[in-house]
Input
Amino acid sequence: MSQQQPPSNAKIITFVVTLSLVCATVLAILASALREPQEIARELDRSRQLMMSARILNYAGYFQIKKGDEYIPAKVEEGGRLVAAEDPELPSRDQVFEVYQTRIQPMLASREGELLTFEEAGINQREYIEDNRKRGYYHLPLMLVYKVLPNPSPDNNQDERPDGFVIPINGYGLWDAIYGFLAIEPNGDKVIGISWYEQKETPGLGAVITEPQWQNQFHCKEIFLPPPEGEKDLETAPLGLNVVKGEVENVYGDRPRAKTSVDGIPGATLTGNGVTNAYHHSLAPYRAFLIKINEKYGENEEDGNGS
Output
């Protein structure tokens, strides 16, 4: 009885190469097929995070509107209008995009503080946003800013006065780059809210920057440090938004710096420093823009997001 000969090395190599090519082809097809859904998912998350910073969405993902000094649950009507709702439902992807397109207008701020549309600047909006997303926008001659439009009225009209503006923020935490949004009042000197949509900080430590309880500290904090006495001059006032080591009450008490500072994260001092630096570096080039909107909207403050 003859013994079966083992396959030759050439056959083995041919089989391995063929299998590898088949696997590579399948993976390439899957990657191509999933690219668009993945990008839609990322865009949906960024849209949610931006509207969370502007308090159009709460941190649980539900729509809300401002009534007096409080935010109440809301639902979407036709045309992207939000109305009060006693029993709101978690919005669908289409509803999120509809409200985003109704309420959020990407624009450009010049170094002199002038606000331009992408059409006025002759810049392709999608290419501009995608090409500069990782590096950030504050280093550019025309910097990205999102105008938060008021909730449409029942006759589908909108007030000319915006509910606020959102500035993209980026910097470095302990381990890697961090990306987020800072929503500010129309007066350019008070925080509506913040969100961090991309970070790789340590879970339970630096990653706390993404948690609602910590992010809520920024609400109503001042952008620029108030002086010990007299009126604030936005042209010379230092930028605030500092993450302190410890608790603000213990560190600053009732001194002016308390109005621009938030509690640190125990065991994550370097992440806190990274957040502080990200705000300062990202906001500094926008100073002229913040001064301009303060001059235009600072006299008559009507905090936004109402119906």
